[in-house]
Amino acid sequence: MTIVSNAAPQHSDAHVFSYYAATLNRQLGFASLEGDFQADICVIGGGFTGLNTAIELAERGFSVILLEARRIGWGASGRNGGQLIRGIGHDVKRFLPLLGAEGVNELKRMGLAAVDIVRQRIQQHAIDCDLTWGFCDLANKPRHLDALAEDHAELTRQGYSHPLRLLSRAELGEVINSGRYLGGLLDMGSGHLHPLNLALGEAAAANSLGVQVFERSPVTRIGYGAKPVVHTARGRVTANTLVLACNAHLGRLQPQLSGKVLPAGSYMIATERMPKSFCHELLPMNAAVCDQKMPLDYFRLSADGRLLFGGACHYSGRDPKDIGAYMLPKMLNVFPQLLGIHLEYAWGGMIGIGANRLPQIGRLPEQPNIYYAQAYAGHGLNVTHLAGRLLAEAIAGQQGGGFDLFARVPHPTFPGGPHLRSPLLALGMLWYRLKDLL
User: Fold this and answer.
1) Tens digit of pLDDT for each residue in 81-118?
2) Is Nucleotide-binding found in the keyword set (predicted)?
3) Sign of the torsion angle spanned by Cα atoms 329, 332, 336, 337
4) To bridge 414 with a disulfide, which of 274, 300, 319, 421 should be the other Cys (CB 3.0-4.6 Å)?
């Protein structure tokens, strides 16, 4: 096994050394904030949430300043698996007592609409990000097959507009050449893409709409009030409204919110380039795939013929010493035919997880001009785009709708403070891993 590099330091301003950073199709390079600025809205965070909130606000006529502590797409937005999958994420039926059947159905509808937001944004701004349609959920156990059948039935009742097919074990060879799975659900309305190129394309789109984007401008403190003042080392922004779009990297900037999201490490590897015939043997439809374990495995082919394989979930805040060596056995369990293949990239990043696994979209009760969105629990590629639209609608005064629905859900603070949150959640996740063995 040969690995070019493991990962850039978490606190470096440069993009982590990954397959995505090595295959950028544009360089932007925005300036750092220096001096005093004013805007209708200040957005903190240059990932998908911040970028799409800025785009949506600019399209509604607001002046917007976006501040990114490092580089656009530096966090999970530029490091993730690139899987564009329908849905909010985890089971939303749990919120029936709180939201009612109509509210839960609306969450499901928004989970489908979120993919269309990404599709439309890519088309509108001609963003080159290797968008490819096709995704398959893979069943590891008989109960997973039952759950996928329920999903298929429900999506059919909802009038899902894209081809959707349950696959038996015998039919699964159309999608994947691995003997580990019992069947699957193939969805041609979900797919995969190059996330960092998407983020950079959206930053360029935001800038073209008049958004002032500043990189390498970490926020040092926020002055709250009727007009929040956002301070950096060399400048400040005074705005009518503030949007916190930092997710797992919020830290001490807003303790009330950061206590409700737990940063967790997720990891990826990328093989060397492989012949087209071999790629076709692994994943004949070039679909993205994901299994049902906890933690899950997710993988797909890149546009240039590599296998991108992701998974694991660490709550300790410490990355494995050797990400490649840690992830390689997981990949070989799925594809033993890859034994001897070289790994050229291995990297990790932090996702944000909330205690109830529902994305947190709302505003601070005591500061109604401070909005936020975070805690996507690994399902952020589409939901971040949805969050951007919901935040913009709320700021523009469009009452009701999805923002109010999300804001009705209370989100508990993780117990134990910053030092005990991770061990406590790790114990909770151990229960789900044990269930996978049954």
Assistant:
1) 999 999 997 789 999 999 999 999 999 999 999 999 99
2) no
3) negative
4) 421
Q: What is the pLDDT of residues 167-196, one digit of tens each?
A: 999 999 999 999 999 999 999 999 999 999
Whole-angstrom CA distances from 351 to 296, 327, 357 are 14, 17, 12
What are the start-end ranges of the H helices in 158-185? none
Rounded mean pLDDT, 354-376: 95
How far is residue 27 from each of residues 15, 24, 30, 49, 204, measured CA to CA in Å? 12, 7, 10, 20, 10
Is residue 275 domain-resident? Answer: yes
Pair 407, 391: CB distance under 8 Å: no
Q: Residue 74 corresponds to which tokens in the numbers above? A: 């530096």
Say how far apart CA 276 and CA 115 lie, in whole Å: 28
pLDDT higher than 50, residue 5: no
Q: How many residues does the chain have?
A: 438
Identify the sign of the CA torsion 9, 12, 16, 17.
Answer: negative
Residue type, 404: D
Mind listing the pLDDT tens digit for each residue in 148-164?
Answer: 999 999 999 999 999 99
Mean pLDDT score of the chain: 92
Tell me how far apart the alpha carbons of residues 174 and 205 are, in angstroms, rounded to a whole number.
Answer: 37
- Its domain, for residue 279, covers 132-193+263-353
d(C-alpha 220, C-alpha 218), whole Å: 6
CA 412 to chain centre: 21
With a cut of 80, say whether residue 287 has pLDDT above it: yes
CA distances from 219 to 8, 233, 258, 313, 374 (A): 22, 7, 15, 28, 17
HSE-up of 174 (CA within 13 Å, CB side)? 15
Q: What's the CATH number where 317 sits?
A: 3.30.9.10
Residue 423, pLDDT score: 55
d(CA 281, CA 258): 44
**Structural domain count, the chain:** 1
Amino acid at 2: T
- How far apart are alpha carbons 291 and 297 in whole angstroms? 6
Residue 370, in any domain of the structure: no
Instruction: Return the structure tokens found at 267.
Output: 């990891």
Separation between Cα atoms, residue 360 and residue 418, nearest integer Å? 19
Instruction: Look at the alpha carbons of 391, 392, 396, 402 in this order and tell me if their dihedral is positive or negative.
Output: negative
The reply to whether 325 falls in a domain is yes
